[in-house]
Design brief:
This protein is mostly beta strands. The chain contains two helices and 21 strands. Among the domains are: about 110 residues, Beta Barrel (Thrombin, subunit H); about 90 residues, no CATH class. The chain starts with about 35 loop residues before the first strand and ends in a 5-residue tail after the last strand.
Length: about 375
């Protein structure tokens, strides 16, 4: 329904003006076909307020027009790096004739806070890039995942890491506790306030009573929600899981039954770990930044080897005085005076010291003795 909006009490980041009053809010929602699943259309029933650090990383998607931000949320999401939010593909697409169109970043703001009408400390950040997974199928409701880049990065809230594929769900995890969060409608018909509730993993794919098909086990999981669960406005929001004391983003709320009282399905983020990492990694700058990126045509950091005594051993040199044979190199132990590349005057011993010094900076690392240096450390 349309309704007038009051002034949004947000601390807006530079470039976004105060929300104007009297603007149109969310439009009437189309009726749901009761014979088919739908994107979530009801509240997190019987939810509770946020009570853990991970909930601070749960965000809301707001409509933006130029520098104006409207306070009624339309989807949720999760901050996974300081400048990247994971949400659902159906939150960032619209049908124009036969074509599925991705929402432009200029139309999206990301809200951090507990309630767009109630939290005076909330803030809206501008989206600068939107990306929908290329395999998203709006009819089959598969690959329902998308990414948003914000600017400036959010530095006051700790992101929640994406569940690695190595820790992803299997049938052995059925019965495990999940924690859902989002800004959807509650049982009293109110929304725009962050709520969270626990649920239980019921199966991979869509494996619970009421499912319209079996879903895709490799990229979806399902849960019953007779008591509580995510619904309208919670689309794109998180399903968190705990692994060894660390909370991860395990799922993105996708769809469920049209009353949200039987089952729900989330997209498994571990299935998209590489795609998310590629988006989150900074692009090579190809300028002097202390890192040689072989993908650049001309990176000043990729200088030709000097092959002279400069404190660094370059193995590509026929004779480099810094590449003296080291006692113990090749014994399978990266000693304190050895490293993967000869840095800090240590001896280059890549036979014992693992390292990767090419490619994107986020993937590079080098062992110096038993210490790993670099963003790509395992």
């Amino acid at each position: 329904m349309y309704r007038n909006l009051r002034l949004l009490p947000l601390l807006l980041v530079p470039g976004l003006a105060l929300v104007v009053a009297g603007a149109s809010g969310c439009a009437d929602r189309a009726p749901v076909d009761t014979a088919a699943p739908s994107v979530v259309t009801q509240p997190i029933m019987n939810g509770y307020g946020p009570d853990a650090p991970r909930h601070a990383a749960t965000v809301a998607l707001l409509q933006r027009s130029s520098t104006t931000v409207y306070p009624d949320i339309y989807c949720s999401g999760t901050l996974v790096t300081p400048d990247v939010v994971v949400t659902a593909a159906h939150c960032l697409t619209s049908q124009r004739g036969k074509k599925l169109v991705t929402t432009a970043p200029e139309q999206v703001a990301i809200y951090f806070g507990d309630g767009t009408y109630t939290d005076s400390n909330g803030a809206a950040y501008a989206a600068v890039e939107t990306l929908v997974y290329p395999g998203y199928d709006a009819n089959a409701l598969v690959n329902d995942i998308a990414l948003i880049r914000i600017s400036p990065p959010m530095t006051a809230i700790a992101p929640v890491p994406v569940l690695p594929h190595a820790l992803g769900f299997s049938s052995a995890n059925v019965g495990e506790t999940l924690n859902f969060a989002g800004f959807g409608e509650d049982e009293n018909g109110a929304y725009n306030t962050k709520l969270q509730a626990d649920g239980v993993l019921a199966g991979l794919g869509c494996a619970v009573s009421g499912c319209w098909n079996a879903g895709v086990a490799a990229s979806q999981f399902s849960y019953t929600q007779y008591d509580s669960g995510p619904c309208f406005g919670d689309s794109g929001g998180p399903a968190f899981v705990n692994r060894g004391g660390t909370w991860y983003l395990a799922g993105v709320t996708s769809y469920g039954d049209n009353t949200c009282t039987q089952y729900g399905v989330s997209t498994r983020v571990d299935a998209y770990e590489g795609w998310i990492a590629d988006f989150a990694a900074p692009a090579p700058t190809c300028v002097s930044d202390g890192f040689c990126d072989a993908s650049c045509a001309d990176d000043p950091d990729c200088a030709a080897p000097t092959c002279v005594a400069d404190g660094f051993c370059d193995a590509s040199c026929a004779a480099d005085p810094d590449c003296g044979a080291a006692e113990g190199c090749g014994d399978g132990v990266c000693a304190a005076d050895e490293s993967c590349d000869g840095r800090y005057g240590t001896t280059l011993c890549d036979a014992d010291c693992a390292g990767k010094m090419t490619g994107k900076p986020a993937g590079r690392f080098c062992y110096v003795g038993d210490t790993c240096e670099g963003d790509g450390c395992p």
